[in-house]
Every structure is written in C-alpha cells, then in structure tokens.
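Hi D.,

Good news: the full-assembly prediction came through. Inputs first.
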Amino acid sequence: MQYKSQAVAKPYFIAAIGLFVGQILFGLILGLQYVIGDFLFPAIPFNVARMVHTNLLIVWLLFGFMGGAYYMIPEESETELFSPKLALAMFWIFLVAGALTIVGYLTVPYAALAEMTGNNLIETMGREFLEQPLPTKLGIVVVALAFLFNITMTVLKGKKTSISLVLLIGLWGLAVFFLFSFYNPVNVVLDKFFWWWTVHLWVEGVWELILGSFLAFVLIKTTGVDREVIEKWLYVIVTLTLITGIIGTGHHYFWIGTPEYWQWWGSIFSALEPIPFFAMTVFAFNMVNRRRREHPNKAAVLWALGTGVMAFLGAGVWGFLHTLAPVNYYTHGTQITAAHGHMAFYGAYAMVNLMMISYAMPLLRGRAANSNKSQVLEMWAFWLMTVAMVFITLFLTAAGILQVWLQRASDAPLPFMVAQDKIALFYWMREWAGVFFLIGLVIYIVSFFVGGEEKQAV
Amino acid sequence: MSGAFTKSMARNIFYGGTVFFFLLFLALSFDTHSQLPKRDMRANITPQIAEGKKLWEVNNCIGCHTLMGEGAYFAPELGNVVARYGDEGTKAFIQSRPKEGIPGRRSMPQFNFTNEQLDAIVAFLKHVNSINDANWPPNDQG
Amino acid sequence: MNSIAAEPAVTARRLPGDLAIWFFILAEMLAFAVFFAAYAFARASHVEEFNQYQQTLDLNAGALNTVLLITGSWFVALAVQAAHRDEQADISRNLLLGWLCGAGFLVVKCFEYAGKFGAGITLSTNTFYMFYISLTFFHFMHVILGMVILTVLWKQSRKGVYGRYDANGLESGAAYWHMVDLLWIVLFPLVYVMR
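Then the structure:
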C-alpha cells in the first residue's frame, strides 16, 4: 500500500465478502424451494428470498467496485484520496441503508414496505432487480454521487491514467443509467424498454469498463508488463465491448411489444458480444505469459485469469447460446436464462471483485502477499467455487433444455408446474453444486485467517 | 509487417466508436417510440389497468413469475394467463391460495385482495395479453 | 485500400495506419458481414417480397453514390501519397475533395430517403425495407463518421502535422474511409441490384 488513504478500501472489501456470504445462503434457500416448494413458507416466500439474493449480489458488487476504486485510484493518480472521511462516511451510510433494506424485505410484507416507504410518491418498486424502496434508491444515488465526487476529484488533482479514465467513465455511466430506475410509466412496454437501460447498459455496458480497468490494473501490478501495452489493449477491448453491447440491448427487445426489427438488430449485434470477452481472455493470458516478474501473489493472478475465462464462458458462450431471436423465442424466460445469468455474473463481476480483493487485501494488511499456506487455501476456494458454478450452470442448462422441450416445443405442451416436476432431478443436482460452492466460499474466508510465513510489503 | 499501435489512436477510437454506437442506439430507440403506440395498446390503458399494474408491482409478483418472459422462473408466465385460465379462473386461483401454503408444493401467498383489486389485476393482465409481442409465448402454457 | 499498398514509395511491407484502427475496421466489417449474412438468410425465405420491393429502389441514385464514394476514396488515397512526398498543400486539398464527395453522397442519399420516408415507408413496413433502411442507414452513419474523421485530418493537415515520417494518423483515417467505401461497394449490389 503506497498511500495511506487506500486503507478506506478495507471495510468495503470486508462488507462485500460478508454480503456475498448472505447472497449464497439465500441462493441455497431458493434452490431448496425449487424442489421443496413450501420450504420456509410463508415466513420467507420465494419472491422475498430471491429479492434478497439478487439485491445482495448487486450491493456486494457495488461495495467491491467502490472498494476497488478507492484502492486503485490513489495509486493510479499517485496522490492521496480527495477525502478519506467522506469515503468512510459513505461506507456506513451504504451499509446501514443496505442492511435496513434487507431487514425490511424479510420482516415486512412487500406491499406494506412499499406503503411505508413512500412508493406512492414515485412508484418505482416491484420491478426485477430494482425492488429497493424509494429511500434506498435515493440513498444509492447519494452514495454514488459522493463516491464519484471523491474519486473524480482525486483523479483531477493527480495523474490521469487511461485505467482511471476508463474506470471513471464506467462509474459515471453506472450512476447515470441507474437514474432510469426512477422512470416507471403505466405503459408496461415503455416500463420494460427503459428498465433495460439500467439493467442491460449496466451489466453489458458500463460495468464491463469497470471490469476491464480493474483487470488491467491488477495485470500491470502482477505481471510487470509495460503500462503502455496494457492500456492500449484495454482501450481496444472496451471499444469492442461498447460497439457490440450498446446495440446488443436489442436482444431484450424481441418479445416485449417492441418493433420486430429488434429481432434482427439484437441478434446481429449480440452475436458479436462474445468477441470482447474472448479478447479479454486472450489479453489476460497473454499478459501473464509475457510477465516480467514473478509476483508473490499467485492467487490474485489465478483470479485474473479465471475471470477472463469464466466471463467468456458465462457471458460470451452462454449468452450466445440463446441470444438469436429464433432460438430465444423458445428459451426466453426459462432456466436457460437462469443458467446464463449465474455463470455470467459469477465469471465477470463476482470474480473480478474477488481478484481485486485478493490482490489488495494482503497489501492493506501490510504484506506483499499472503503466506503460501493461505494462498493454497484461497486457490482451493477458487477451484471449488468455480467448478461448482460450472456445474450449477450445466444443471440449469439441462433443466432449461428439458423445460423448453416439455413446455414449449413438443406437440403436446405441458403446463409449467407439470414440466417443473419432471425436471426436479436437475434442481436437486444444482442444489448440491450450490452446497459445494458454499464450502468453497467458507474455505475462501478461512484463507484470510491462516497465518504462516508472509513476505513483507516493500 | 509492423505498423504503429498507439494509445492515443486506441483512445480516440474508443471515444468515437462509443459515441457512434450510442447515437445509433438512440436513433433506433427514437424509431421504436414512434412505432410503439401501434403495438403497446396504450390507448386502452384505463385507471383500472394502472391500478392493476401497481398491485402487480407492490406485491412483487415478478419475484416468482415472468411477464412477457421477464422476471423469475419459479412460477408460470402471466402475460398470457388470462388466455390460459380465463378472467374468472385467474381470479379464483388467486383467491383460493391457502394461507399456510400447500405441503411440499410451491405455494403462492394469500394476498387477501378485495374484489375490486382482483378485477384490476385481471384487467392489467388482459392488457398485457393484448400487447403485440411478436406472438410470444409459443403456446398457451407460456 | 490497394492504392496505398501498391504505392511504390513504401518498400518494406508495412501495415499502413495504426493497428488500433485495423481492429476497429475488422470489428465494423464483421458487424456488416453478419448483417449481410442476415440479409441473405432473410431473403432466402422471402424471395418474392425482396424482388418486388427491390424494384422500388433508385438504381441511379445508388450508382451515382457508388461513383461518389470511389472518387472520394481516390482523393483520400492521393492525400496519403502526397503526405509520403511531403507535399503539404496537396494533402489538405485532396482531403477536402474527398470530404466533398462524402457530402455529395449524403445529399443524394437524403433525397432517396425523402422519397421513401415520404411514401410512409419505415423499418416496420416489411422485411425488405427493414433491411434496406437498416443497412443503408447504418452505412449512412458510417459516412458521417468518416467525414468527421476527414475533417479532423484536414484540420491537422493544415497545421502541417503529416509528412513522410508521420503519416500514422492520416493513413489510419484513410483506411477507415476506404472501409466505408468498400462496404458500400458490397452493399449497393447486394441490396439494390442482385436478384
């Protein structure tokens, strides 16, 4: 750690991991509800558990992004953070707001929560992933603006590198596109149309800039490859991302009442979306192969390579599988979507955050890298979680293919629940894969507390 | 064959390419907005339908169901539920959910809707069913 | 593009322009290639419709535009050659002429669009017009982008930035402009002529 103020990243990382654990626990509850329908009913119905699962995901990723930015930006800008106090204050505000929201979900019926949090003023609740009550949404805006102010001021007073520039564009884009979550017209087609401006333009747009800049930063630090080389490849990759991803939004406009030309535009551009992910994988492996130093933090390098591969598989390959309109006509809104969602989010965003944490946490704790023992454990956690996620994806894909066949494509289509009962075996296997994921996560956390001989930070 | 590969060129292309494709996206979105009134049946939206959409939202129906294929995949598609069950059938289903669920089965909560609320929900779902969504879903099972 | 490669002054085999622009060009051409393939795919199942509505397109306007773009490419290629000979005034003049050809293309295209849009044709009219408008408009925007690039090159050339030892920016922009031309040379026969 070169700058004192980088230390504010630490609570963000700890909170991120804590919320990640919560996300996985609720994931297991959901998985069980898929096969034991009345599990925890009516105390925690499926919709509540799912809301907690997805909202925790979003919040922990945001914590990770913020922590990563607070760690990275002072080092890139070669100056102390503009205001560490503001960063710390925002941490507590965000954590408390997030915790209160989750408690609200779990203790109050959703309709009552909407009533008491002023949903009648601006109706924004009850849409997938954007279920947060109005005060939480406003809180996210305030925290994001304060965070952006802090980061932008730091960059402005220090050195402006390409990596910080790409990160800033990504983060500002994140804030700007979140504003569409406040727009909820009565016309359900318009509602859905702009809902995607937040959801798609986040995950297949600006978030990828954040991903790219984090990856580039860690690769520079761990491989010692010339910054110039890494930064120009970063530009090439994020360009590819946006030229395919922006129009790629069209793959969500096939069946929601939007004109039919989106079937062509969406199919064509989203067919190209795997390219930037592939480029990212090649980039990560290339840089590591051309490394000019052996960084003691092997685990961080493993996460960096892992995120490249898994993002390509999850977002690229599994995205492409069902993105062409004639295919999507049958697969839209089935377990295939769920399979893609799981691997893409894990591969692209969970793993890039874990990579950043893996690289930065030892430095924040005053060492160049964790002890060998600790790293071995972390790498076990990497493989367990990643392989478990591959299996979760495969089982959900199998379930999805059967679901499509039974419910949509066969001559005598079965009702939804009849089809679900027939594919229960795959849901059971998915649940077991989920248990292995949890074991991996527990090992990951244990790795933070394993001692051994550590290299001192220079 | 070795040409230059400069960072400033890569950066300019990043800016130019992004602005270009974003403008193209805006142009397509603009066209979409001129076409939507023919497809989204906005002229038919009544206060009752608006009330139904609100009920749909504040009870987080999307947390289990899909609507035009978007949402959670735990429970059936509802964009065409009125075609599957009919108005009365849909209402009867919502009304008859046991408070404590069905042992061992996926259970829908009992929301204790009034008759007016049930009518509003069904009006909303009928409206969604009337939207021209390119013949999705493939069949009535959703 | 050949005009540069065949240029005798360049002895060593060298990629003209910046590698970064070539990635962009490849990505763009790939997008168009997929679009063209989609056109072929859609046409295969709507042959009648495609043949019928193709006849409503203005071949003369399309042919004129082809000439304009090829001429524009020629001027831009001349600008690059002028840079290799360090003839500053020639660079700017040829860029300007190339730009004017682009502007001519836009004007002709606007007249063509005015006729079509005036007749109430939109992206949603039928599959053929969907492709016609999508492909030509997508290309139209590329012409505009190419002209923005030419404008920047022209401004830079007036400052005397380009010459024998620094033609990277100019060559990159020129390569992009040639791509815009090349795409039209595929698009025009495909959409306007081929039955």
